[in-house]
């Protein structure tokens, strides 16, 4: 009888420890999310399932062109690509990205879209057109765009995104199976 009670206690301890590990992992390391909508196509498709890396934000801020998940509202998270970092001035002209008034910056993740569609993919704008009316991305914020520039609610509409709103960096797509791989 004592052995059965001991076995049950071992199982209960194992379940409790496993639950604690899962909760801590989701809070501090990584979290699964589902892409909702077409704003990141062709990079990510609607209903793709991803792992979002939360731990890297403990050591550094996101880099340019990282795909990040952030709290857009109290109930809704968005997934977009970081285009501008604090202190950057962003301009788009004739589907070309310019940072800090310098030379054109390539966006290889858009190459197929720009080749297949001769019409304007990203409407022309500069920092003065963005909510907040600043000449540069403010300290503690980033400027984000969806890869599907024609159908994306991003910094052109929301303004700058506080780094504190960022949940994590999209790392791996795990579903559907045909899309398994690292997020570029």
TrEMBL record:
Membrane topology according to the record: Single-pass type II membrane protein
Annotated compartments: Cell membrane; Membrane
Domain Peptidase S26: 8-175
Gene Ontology terms: cellular component: plasma membrane
The enzyme's E.C. designation: 3.4.21.89
Recorded GO MF terms: serine-type endopeptidase activity; signal peptidase activity
Pfam families per the UniProt record, alphabetical: Peptidase_S26
Active-site residues, Swiss-Prot/TrEMBL: 39, 80
Keyword annotations of the record: Hydrolase, Membrane, Protease, Transmembrane, Transmembrane helix
A biological process from GO: signal peptide processing
Enzyme class label: hydrolase
Keyword DNA repair applies: no
Transmembrane segments: 12-35
Highest taxon above the source species: Bacteria
SUPFAM superfamilies: LexA/Signal peptidase
Principal location class: membrane
Catalysed conversion reaction: Cleavage of hydrophobic, N-terminal signal or leader sequences from secreted and periplasmic proteins
Homology family: Belongs to the peptidase S26 family.
Protein name: Signal peptidase I
């Amino acid at each position: 009888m004592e052995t059965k009670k001991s076995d049950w206690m071992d199982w209960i301890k194992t379940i409790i420890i496993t639950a604690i590990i899962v909760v801590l992992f989701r809070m501090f390391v990584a979290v699964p999310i589902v892409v909702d909508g077409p704003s990141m196509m062709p990079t990510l498709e609607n209903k793709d399932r991803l792992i979002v890396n939360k731990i890297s934000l403990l050591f550094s801020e996101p880099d340019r062109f990282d795909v990040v998940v952030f709290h857009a509202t109290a109930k809704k998270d968005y997934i977009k690509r970081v285009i501008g970092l604090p202190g950057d001035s962003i301009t788009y002209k004739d589907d070309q990205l310019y940072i800090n008034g310098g030379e054109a910056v390539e966006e290889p993740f858009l190459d197929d879209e720009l080749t297949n569609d001769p019409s304007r993919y990203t409407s022309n704008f500069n920092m003065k057109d963005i909510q907040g009316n600043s000449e540069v991305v403010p300290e503690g914020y980033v400027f984000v765009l969806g890869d599907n520039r024609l159908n994306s609610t991003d910094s052109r509409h929301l303004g700058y995104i506080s780094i504190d709103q960022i949940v994590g960096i999209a790392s791996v797509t795990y579903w559907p199976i045909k899309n398994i791989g690292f997020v570029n």
